[in-house]
Specification:
single chain; alpha/beta; TIM Barrel; four-stranded parallel sheet; three-stranded parallel sheet; 14 helices; about 40% helix
Amino acid sequence: MSGWREILSQQMHDSPPRLTVEEATLLYDQADFNQLLSTGLFRRKKMVPGNEVTYLIDRNVNYTNVCTINCQFCSFYRSPGHHETYTQTFEQISARLSELEGIGGSRVLMQGGVHPDLDIDWYIELIRKLHLNHPSIALDCFSPIEIEGIAEICGIPTKNVLLMLKDAGMHGLPGGGAEMLVDDIRLDISPKKGSAENWLRVMEEAQEIGLTTSATNVIGFGETNANRVQHMNRIRELQDSSQSRGLVGFTSFISWPVQLENNTFGKRNRGKNRIELGASANEYLRHIAISRLFFDNIFHIQASWPTMGLDIAQLALLAGADDIGSTMMEENVVSASGTTKTMASESELQRIISEAGFIPKLRDSDYVFSENIVVRSNTP
């Protein structure tokens, strides 16, 4: 196998060879930080021509915090029967979408937990009402584990659940819950969530019926660099399979470090038995650059400002990311684990894009550009 300098040199060609798992791991372990990031930026400009960086106006809606999966790194969930549980009414959720429409938003990211008392009829009625009352808002809802939970409660296949939700008006299935698609790590951090194979299967089913999908990755669980590349390889393999069948596949890849405050998992990072967890800004930027080089079949790499802050997200644009994410307007899951900034105005996102030397470009959930970019006054 070539050394890291030769591997990066090859990636500077117009048609570079595909990175192998071994080569990507070597880059992670040994490549010079600055050279790695500059190569990531070069490949980004080849894969996504032009000087635009995209962003989205949306909001998160966390319709319930009831969940039976009990992920160790999640500070948001409450077990059934806990005095702090909630499930929003259809009217409450609809009011949030009306607020989103008021600032020109185009997408809602709606996720909750695996609620044992909500069956498929509840979800179908919710999606139908939202689609009827807010036809301009793309409903990107739930996650593979939520789909599995609904299927188990109702005794029907996950693909049937997805078909019924799509028929009701659901636009996309976000890629939440992937975390790390390496089963040993999944078993450690979230033993009830199921295998990597399950997540990949549900996402593949969503792609087969035309739902918009994204791929995600959480780093900092104590995994090795090789594990991180394994995760990316599972996603790249599914993308190859989907695209070979004429499907869109994943629109984007989004990664961020695990948050360690206020949760069971974070306690491993304290005391005399401390285990080094989390991921530094340096690690995160390396991950962005390597994901850009590794994913020759996923065009859009998104920077994560809610977990890393706007300044590091801005640097990620110089490491290979071509999208800054969204205004979000509301966020409850990551913030429960310690993140303090959970909203950004459109003008803030435009500013950090412009200061990095790029042109801000408003998009929708499918990465279709909008020609009408207006700085609005939704304050963070």
